[in-house]
Hints:
It contains ten helices and nine strands. By secondary structure, the chain is of the alpha/beta class. The chain has a six-stranded mixed β-sheet, with helices on both faces. α4 (144-152) crosses α5 and α8 runs antiparallel to α9 (221-235). The chain is globular.
Amino acid sequence: MLREHLLTEVSNHVLLVTLNRPESLNAFSPDMIADLTNTIVDVRQNSQIRAIVIRGAGRSFSAGGDVKSMGQATAVQLYDHVGKLNDCILAMDSCEVPIIAAVHGFAAGAGFNLALACDLIVAAEDSQFAMSFSKVGLISDGGGSYFLPKLVGPHLAKQLFFSAEPISAERLHQLGVINHVFPLNQLEEEVLKIADKLAHGPTKAYGMMKKLVSHSFTASLEEILEQERITQTLMGTTEDHIEGVTAFKEKRKPKYTGN
């Protein structure tokens, strides 16, 4: 589907979403945020979509907020803008199919946080990331103060927030923030391989795993154990579980449907 600031296409059960403001390094516009939110929400109604890849057009993944328009909004407008970004992040978190960020060039500010909100991050080896908010006197939005400390710990997170200095994909890979790093000329091919594998996996189980991981940050061990107990009981009745067991016994590759 063609929109002004967001491109979407489906290939082999994978939804490819391209941030499309290359002239501004894919800085967020209100239309882009709204279209991305609606696109993620619509996946719930489309059983043919079993994995999502978010990438950027042109030279970079996303520069985050559009600095050219900053300082012009009223407090009410800024509150509304961040609220719409929050809706997008929450839609991604509740989406039951895996979401992969394919990052090249630069991912800065809310662009970095958009990648963090995905389930996996795959990056070009020369890409750079930065929590650039403090450069313009702002704090992190888009969930950065939620995601980053849980991944790198509070001290390094505060260093990255305070300094706004770029950090390499390789360093973030070493820290466990990024899942895979590839040469730029191999990035698209490798991302699609990962997305294809996920799209043909037990996506219902993936969706339940996402929820459990999210809840683990705020729930007690007892609560997570009970959620696992209830969820596993439900998963034991799914078609994918039966198919997985049958395929194992028959020594063949399972054919999952997400049911």
